[in-house]
């Protein structure tokens, strides 16, 4: 909610930078959670699913990191 309230007040480049900061932080936190889960899960089927999701999230996180660095 706080991020949304802050973003509503912005426009243009300031919005872009703040938005990407939120998106990037969210992607990195999600990647960290998937990495942690992959390290502790014991069920092989679930681990496979977590690793597949982690791969997609890692790719998206790299894109978010790249875009954020260009703003």
Could you describe the 3D structure shown?
The protein is mostly helical. 89% of the residues lie in helices and 0% in strands. The protein contains 3 helices and no strands. It has helices spanning 2-8, 12-40, 44-70. α2 runs antiparallel to α3 (44-70). The radius of gyration is 15 Å and the shape is elongated. The model has no long low-confidence stretch (mean pLDDT 95).
β-strand percent reads: under 5%
**What does the main sheet amount to?**
none
Based on Cα principal axes, name the global outline: elongated
**Helical stretch count?**
3
Overview features:
89% helix, mainly alpha, 0% strand, 71 residues
In a few lines, what is going on in this structure?
The chain has 71 residues and is mostly helical. 89% of the residues lie in helices and 0% in strands. The model has no long low-confidence stretch (mean pLDDT 95).
Outline the secondary-structure elements.
Elements: H1 2-8, H2 12-40, H3 44-70
């Amino acid at each position: 909610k706080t991020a949304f309230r802050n973003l509503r007040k912005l426009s243009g480049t300031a919005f872009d930078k703040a938005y990407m900061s939120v998106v990037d932080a969210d992607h990195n936190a999600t990647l960290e959670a998937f990495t942690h889960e992959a390290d502790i899960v014991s069920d092989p089927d679930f681990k496979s699913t977590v690793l597949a999701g982690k791969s997609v999230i890692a790719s998206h996180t790299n894109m978010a990191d790249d875009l954020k660095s260009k703003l």
